[in-house]
Structures are given as C-alpha cells and as structure tokens.
Specification:
Elements lengths: L1 H5 L12 H20 L13
C-alpha cells in the first residue's frame, strides 16, 4: 500500500501558495466581506507575532 501511495502524483489545492499568501488572502477576504455587510471599513490588527 505504501508503494502505491508514493507513486501518486503531487496535488496542490492552494495553487502553490505559501502560508503567508494564504493568510493574507484570508485577512483580505474577511475585511472585504465585513465592509460589504456593515458598510464600515475594518483593519484586522496583528494578534500574534507571526502575522
């Protein structure tokens, strides 16, 4: 079974995005949706060092 798995092609569900790219996309999407719903701009502050 391991041999079969190791022969499978690599699959990317995030189009080779980095973790920083995914994080930025999620923050931007949230901010845009929040503004769309509330008509108020919001800027998510950095809550932890990695952001």
């Amino acid at each position: 079974m391991i041999a079969e798995i190791s022969n499978l092609p690599e699959v990317s569900f995030i189009d080779s995005m980095t973790l920083d790219d995914v994080q930025a996309l999620l923050v931007r999407s949230y901010e845009e949706k929040y503004e769309q719903i509330t008509k108020e701009k919001v800027s998510l502050k950095r809550a932890i060092r990695s952001r």
